[in-house]
UniProtKB/TrEMBL annotation:
PROSITE patterns (alphabetical): R3H
PANTHER family recorded: PROTEIN JAG, RNA-BINDING PROTEIN KHPB
Transmembrane segments: none
Species name: Capsulimonas corticalis
A family per Pfam: R3H
Native organism taxonomy: Bacteria, Bacillati, Armatimonadota, Armatimonadia, Capsulimonadales
SUPFAM superfamilies, per the entry: R3H domain
InterPro entries, sorted: Jag_KH (IPR038008), KH_dom-like_a/b (IPR015946), KhpB (IPR039247), R3H_dom (IPR001374), R3H_dom_sf (IPR036867), R3H_KhpB (IPR034079)
Protein name: Uncharacterized protein
Gene Ontology MF: a single term: RNA binding
Length: 153
């Protein structure tokens, strides 16, 4: 039901745009809905630095979670932008961690949105040789990567 609601609203937005794109939902756990915009004009829904995609995702989360407990997370992707971004951030996180281990000094990222910071934290949580934490205030919040102080690392 929630997935259908998210799809219905996103299809309305896409149809109203006049662009050629389709909307579909992928397999997901009960607490997460993943919707994808595909087609010749799908890349227009990404926007500069994924800002349009972030806005669509935020809007759909507000709509489907109004008066709902527990909340359901809606993830929106267009033209595989988020999938490519995850790959890029995963590679970047490991390069940053390798740099930190090599020189023994902490490193900081540029400001990132919450989703991107979560990816960095999740990827590097698997490594025992580094630790991560976020600092700063939105929208300038960033990730700090430092050598692990854990004796097991």
């Amino acid at each position: 039901m929630v997935a259908e609601q998210a799809l219905e609203h996103l299809r309305g937005i896409v149809a109203g745009s006049g662009l050629q794109a389709d909307v579909s939902a992928g397999g997901q756990p009960l607490d997460e809905i993943s919707v994808e915009i595909t087609g010749p004009d799908a890349s227009y829904f990404v926007g500069p630095h994924g800002q349009c995609l972030d806005s669509l995702q935020y809007l759909l989360n507000l709509i489907v979670n109004k008066g709902r407990e527990p909340r359901v997370r809606v993830s929106v992707d267009a033209d595989k932008h988020r999938a490519r971004r995850i790959q890029t951030l995963t590679k970047f996180a490991h390069q940053l961690a390798d740099q930190v281990i090599s020189n023994g000094q902490e490193a900081v990222t540029d400001p990132m949105n919450p989703m991107e910071r979560r990816i960095i934290h999740t990827v590097l949580a698997e490594r025992k040789d580094v630790q991560t934490y976020s600092e700063g205030d939105e929208p300038g919040r960033y990730v700090v990567v430092c050598p692990s102080t854990d004796d097991n690392g």
